[in-house]
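Let us practice reading a record.
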Amino acid sequence: MACLVLVFLGTVLCQVLIPYQANLVAADFPEATSLVVPYSAAAIAFVVCIQVSLAMVFWLLGKVGNQTIFTNAALRPVSVIIWCIVIATGLSLAVLLYMCFGPEYATGGGAGLFMLACVVGGTALALLMVVMRGLLRAAIEDRNELSEVI
């Protein structure tokens, strides 16, 4: 749990540093000044998705500690995590598409490959979480059935 808190604090630091770093890049590349606000907003929204997911994982870990993870209440945070992953992946896809089809100065080095990796990784992670939610749902049903027998 302490590790999650440290990671969460790291994401807060990232949110503070994103606009600062974007302004530094804009100072070095004046033609990209118009991209500072939209790219910063997308990056901050991405980090917010991570923070919400971390909060849900923290809540689920508390349920594990209380041995109440196999209840229907545990399905909602898993769904929230899935939606956060989908939103973050959508943000990455939007930035990738803008980099590919936007102005020439919107692309840069390996940033396009990084955004593609975010889209592919996010899609895989979302699908994995859908499977995990299905497994949790089956485990909840099995536990309820077992509790009726006992």
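A brief commentary: The chain has a mean pLDDT of 90.
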